[in-house]
Design a protein that fits this description.
The structure is a single chain. This protein is an alpha+beta fold. It has three domains: 25-179, Globin-like; 216-382, no CATH class; 391-478, Arc Repressor Mutant, subunit A (Orthogonal Bundle). 57% of the residues lie in helices and 7% in strands. It contains 18 helices and eight strands. The chain has helices spanning 25-43, 45-59, 61-69, 71-90, 92-113, 117-142, 147-150, 154-196, 204-211, 282-296, 329-335, 356-367, 383-390, 392-403, 411-426, 431-438, 442-456, 463-478; strands spanning 218-226, 236-237, 244-248, 253-259, 337-338, 342-346, 350-351, 375-378. Helix 5 (92-113) packs parallel to helix 8 (154-196) and helix 6 runs antiparallel to helix 8. It starts with 24 loop residues before the first helix and ends with a helix.
Length: 481
C-alpha cells in the first residue's frame, strides 16, 4: 500500500505537492521528528502489514476474496509497499522511484486479478491512514511535545498519498486496456481459427468456453461482402436475441450463428440457453421467433442496436430475453439485415464447433452466386450455381464447349438468343410465358430456340444437353466478372 511522504526540504514537487516555502528551522525540526518516527515504523513493518491485511479483509469484500485465494501474495505486496513508502519518508531521493514502481505494479496485478479499482484505491488510503496514525503514535510515545512539529508535514503526507492514488488509477486503467485488448485479440484469433478450420482438436473446449458456445451445438456461418466501396461499419446485423459472433475479414464480414438444437425425433426446435430463475417453454420461444422473423423480414431496414459497435462480439448479450436460436438457414436468412449494396449468403448447417470452417467455405461459395446488386442467398437454394463457381475452370470450359459457337455470330444476335433461352428456362420451358415476358410472339421464341439448336448442335429436348446448356449459361453469368 502506498503511504510515503515527501518532505518539504528534500522532495522535488510532484503533481500533488504543496508550494515550496523557504527553508526554516521549524521545517528542519519537523523533518527530524518525521524521520525518527518513520525509522521506528520501518522496524515494525511486519506488524503494520499484519494490521493492514486484517483491515482490508474486514472492510473490503473484494480484498477478502483475494486474501482467501492467495493470502501470501496479498501480504507480500502490502509489505513491499509499506517498506518502500516508509523508506521514502527517510530517504525520498533514493526510494521515491522504487515506491512508485511498486504502486504501479500492485495496481496492474490487482487489475489482472479482477479486484475493482475503487477497492484498490481504498486499500491505498487505508494504508496511508495507518502509516500516518503510526507516525503520530510513535511521536507521542517518544516526546508528546513533538506532535506540534509533526503537524507541519501532515499536508505533505496526504498529498503524497493522493499522488500515489493517481499513479495507481492510471496504472490500473492502463492494465485494463491491455487486458481488454488481449481478450479481444484472443477472441478474434479463436474465431478466425474456427472459421479457417485450423483450430486444434485439443483447443476446442477452450474455444467453446471462451466464446460461450456449446462444443456440440448446431451452427451456420453467414458471409457478407460489399458490392463496391462501402463505408466503415458492419455489413450485416441480426436481432440482439440471436447468438452470433461477428468476425471482420479483409473483404467483408463473417458470423458464426448458433442454431436451434434437434429433439430426439430429429425435429428442429427453438430452445433457450439454460439460465437460473427463468426461461421460456418451446412453444413460447417458437412464437417469439416467428414474431422476430416478421419484424425483421426484409433486408434494407438498416442495422439493429449495437450492430455498428464491433466486428467481433456476441450480439445476443444485450438482448432483453433469453437467446433465440433460428431453426435453420431459411429462418436465419429471414432475420438477417444488410446494409444497402451488400451481398450476403448463409452456409449449410453443421454440427459442432470443429465443423464451423466447412460452413464458412460453402457460405463464401454461395456468396459468389449472389446477384450483383446485393441480397441474401442460401447455399441450399443455389447448389447448381455454387457447383459452377466452386470449379471456375471447369465452368469456363463447359461454357466454351456449349456456347462457343455463338461467339461466331453478331454479338447483339448472340445476346438475343441467350436472353431468349434464359427466359424460356426461367418459365419452365413455356414458349407462351417466355413470349409474354419478352414482348414478342410465341413463334418468335420458338424460332430463336431452333436457331440456337442449329448453331450449337444441342437439343433442348434432350435432358443431358439441357443440363449442360443450363450450367453453361450459369457459368457465363457468374464467371463473366
Amino acid at each position: 500500500m502506498s503511504h510515503p511522504v515527501r518532505s518539504r526540504v528534500r522532495e522535488v514537487p510532484g503533481p500533488y505537492a504543496v508550494p515550496r516555502r523557504g527553508r526554516s528551522l521549524l521545517d528542519a525540526e519537523s523533518v527530524a521528528v518525521l524521520h525518527r518516527a518513520a525509522e521506528a515504523l520501518l522496524e515494525d513493518v511486519a506488524g503494520l502489514t499484519t494490521a493492514l491485511v486484517a483491515d482490508l479483509g474486514e472492510q473490503e469484500p473484494a480484498y477478502r476474496a483475494a486474501i482467501d485465494a492467495d493470502a501470501a501474495a496479498i501480504r507480500r505486496e502490502v509489505q513491499q509497499s509499506l517498506r518502500h513508502n516508509i523508506a521514502s519518508l527517510i530517504r525520498p531521493r533514493e526510494c521515491r522511484d522504487v515506491a512508485r514502481r511498486t504502486s504501479r505494479a500492485i495496481a496492474a496485478t490487482r487489475a489482472e486479478s479482477g479486484v475493482p479499482l475503487d477497492a484498490v484505491l481504498h486499500a491505498f488510503r487505508l494504508g496511508g491512514a495507518m502509516v500516518w496514525q503510526g507516525l503520530v503514535d510513535e511521536t507521542a510515545r517518544r516526546n508528546p511535545e513533538d506532535i506540534r512539529l509533526l503537524v507541519h508535514v501532515a499536508a505533505d503526507v496526504w498529498n503524497f498519498v493522493d499522488e500515489h492514488c493517481a499513479l495507481v488509477g492510471g496504472a490500473y486503467r492502463e492494465a485494463e486496456r491491455r487486458l481488454a485488448w488481449r481478450r479481444q485479440n484472443r477472441l478474434r484469433l479463436t474465431a478466425a481459427a474456427l472459421l479457417d478450420g485450423t483450430v486444434r482438436v485439443t483447443d476446442l473446449p477452450e474455444a467453446a468456453a471462451l466464446l460461450g458456445l456449446p462444443l456440440d451445438g448446431r451452427y451456420a456461418v453467414v458471409a457478407a461482402a460489399p458490392v463496391g466501396p462501402h463505408p466503415a461499419g458492419a455489413l450485416l446485423a441480426l436481432p440482439a436475441e440471436v447468438r452470433v459472433w461477428w468476425h471482420a475479414t479483409d473483404g467483408g464480414q463473417l458470423g458464426i450463428v448458433r442454431l436451434a438444437d434437434e429433439d430426439a425425433t430429429g425435429e428442429r426446435v427453438v430452445r433457450p440457453d439454460a439460465a437460473p430463475g427463468g426461461g421460456y417453454e418451446n412453444g413460447e420461444l417458437a412464437d417469439r421467433t416467428s414474431k422476430l422473423m416478421l419484424r425483421h423480414a426484409g433486408h434494407g431496414d438498416g442495422f439493429g442496436r449495437g450492430a455498428e459497435a464491433a466486428t467481433l462480439r456476441a450480439m445476443g448479450e444485450a438482448g432483453s430475453g433469453p437467446p433465440v436460436h433460428p431453426a435453420g438457414p431459411a429462418a436465419l436468412a429471414a432475420l438477417l439485415r444488410t446494409a444497402p449494396s451488400v451481398r450476403a449468403a448463409v452456409g449449410p448447417v453443421v454440427t459442432g464447433l470443429a465443423a464451423v470452417g466447412e460452413s464458412r467455405v460453402l457460405a463464401e461459395v454461395a456468396l459468389e452466386t449472389c446477384p450483383p446488386g446485393g441480397g441474401v442467398v442460401l447455399l441450399d437454394e443455389q447448389l447448381p450455381d455454387a457447383l459452377v463457381v466452386s470449379a471456375p475452370d471447369l465452368g469456363r470450359a463447359l461454357e466454351r464447349r456449349v456456347l462457343g459457337p455463338l461467339d461466331a455470330i453478331d454479338p447483339a444476335d448472340c445476346e438475343l438468343l441467350v436472353g431468349t433461352l434464359t427466359t424460356w428456362l426461367a418459365t419452365q420451358g413455356s414458349a407462351q410465358r417466355a413470349a409474354t415476358r419478352l414482348y414478342c410472339h410465341r413463334n418468335t421464341v420458338l424460332n430463336r430456340l431452333r436457331r440456337f439448336e442449329q448453331l450449337t448442335g444441342r437439343s433442348l429436348a434432350e435432358p443431358s444437353d439441357l443440363v449442360e446448356i443450363s450450367l453453361a449459361l450459369t457459368a457465363r453469368r457468374l464467371l463473366a466478372k
